Description:
The chain is of the alpha/beta class and 562 residues long.
Amino acid sequence: MPRLTGGQAAVEALKAEKVRHVFGLIGSATMEMFDALHDAPDIAFIGVHDERTGAHMADGYARMSGEAGVVLAGQNGPGATNLVTGLAQAAAAYSPVVSIAGSLASSHVYRDAFQEVDQQALFKPITKKTWTATGADRVPELFRDAFRVAMTPRRGPVQLNLPRDVLSATVDVPDFQPPEAYRTRSVPAAQASAVDEAAAMLAEASRPVIIAGGGIKNTEAHARALALAEALNAPVVTSPGHGDAIPFGHPLNAGQMGPRGNAVASRLVREADVILALGTRIGFNATFYSYDNINRDAAIIQVELEPTAIGRYFPVALGIWADAPTAALQLTGALAKLKRRAAADAWTDAFKAERSAYLAKRDAEARMDAAPIHPSGLFRTLRGVLPKDAAVTMDAGTLCLQATDALNYWEPKSLFTPLDFGLVGFSFACGLGVKLARPDRPVVSLMGDGGFGMTVSELSTAVDHGIDTVTVIMNNRCWGAEKAYQRDFFGGRYIGADVSSPAFDKLAELYGAKGYRASTLAEAAEAIEAALGCGGPAVVDVAVDPAALYSFRRDSFRHRGG
């Protein structure tokens, strides 16, 4: 009877899951698995330069494709520890990343062996679940478990540790079941009584607002959310980082809410009498957990797939455990049956006028002649040159935080950010994964110079695998968020705030990518358009005013009197 090594069984399990890409870094601990990948032409192995960035690529791939992203750290110990930041990031984004790492041979555990670390304990706090295989015969079962857990709502990363002896041992060829045999294919709908109660509350509202969160964005359910908004004639705000949950061009789209959102969307949430939260925790980035950012007197209807998120930060008038798109469809149907409706037209008409004025003012006040380039001018330039189907990835940091609501997202899904993890060094690698998931979409990654410096080596990955993204570096020669805090709250006592970097356009060319440089907005527009059409990976180094800094977290320094 034919037999497989544990490494071969692992790759057969990936084939059963219909995995098309594996991101990773080769290592001796998993050589049997890499050898098996050599014989798997349907799986493209994307060799990376750091396991962290490989995890970001898998994260971006998962978010864009809606399927699990797979990352493989070939080495136990340091190869595994390098995954930690990427998996913590994926956990904050509820991104279904299946992470695989080599692990110490079973007979060497607890002996202070070479590259020994307790990987089971290491990954437990930052994953939905972590396993360590105990035998080659368990490999197919554990892979099924890993994909099932990662893809089960609420989705998230998982970690599978594969000891060297497990990968080298042989086993009879197991039965590899298709995913449909062990995956759920349904999501919970709202109870009829809850739907009727929510519909009545919304029908009586004179100032209703809908918050569309990740539960709408990640399921690409904008049509259902907008059908409900149109039935109510209610504005829709999006939770931070999910400004692409509904298309920019819809007249009921107010943009991102909260302390880092725009003034129009934020006012709506502060003044609404009924708030329908569709697929959102109403969490930190949306509110800073403060009634300064949400109406204390509003009746909140919160629809969430994760029951423990309902009412966690703000008391709700009605909590509904359900899939947000399904509940939106149910609510639209229930509203159609109601005869008596409060008029929200005045509220919504006022919002539309305010939104129109805000967008006009945003363009009018953009500093297009500033030298050096001011961020507002760069954002207006980007609004003009980015294709409507572009997908945009971003880092954390003040420039990217300003950009999240300063750009226009026409086609969901099109915005990928670190969300609540606030990670610098995420955008470029994430964009590579996004592009592999949707090669038909232009992908533009925005970063500061510090964040790009962390991950620049992945230019080799982009060039070697023909992953044609455009990275726009907003180069202000500093760690902008921290420098702003030092300026505003510590008397300009700067330490560690400035960054030196090579000419990134020249560095890109050394890697074999296209490089462009811009010190004026006209040059920036020309360079970005050229980069989008160059047919290869490209970097645009844009000189941005280092004095154009903004303190986003002023609340953190109230004790200093700022």
